[in-house]
Amino acid sequence: MIDDRAFWLLTAGLGIGTYLIRFSFLGLLGGRTLPQWLLMHLKYVGAAVFPAMITPLVLWPEATGGQIDPARLIAAAAAFVVGMRFSVLGAIFTGMGSLYLLQALGL
Amino acid sequence: MTSRSAFWRGFADCAPFILIVIPYSMMFGVVARDAGLDVFRTMSMSVLVIAGASQFTALTLLKEDAPVFVALLTALVVNLRMAIYSAALVPHLGHARLGVRALMAYLMVDQAFAVAVKRYESPPPLSPTARVAYYFGCMMLICPFWYGGTLAGAILGQAIPASLSIDFAVPVCFIALVAPGLRSLPHVVAALTSVAAMLVFSGLPWSLGLLVATLCAMVAGVQTELYLRRRVDRKAAA
Question: Which residues cross the membrane (chain A) (predicted)?
Answer without folding.
Answer: 6-29, 41-61, 73-102
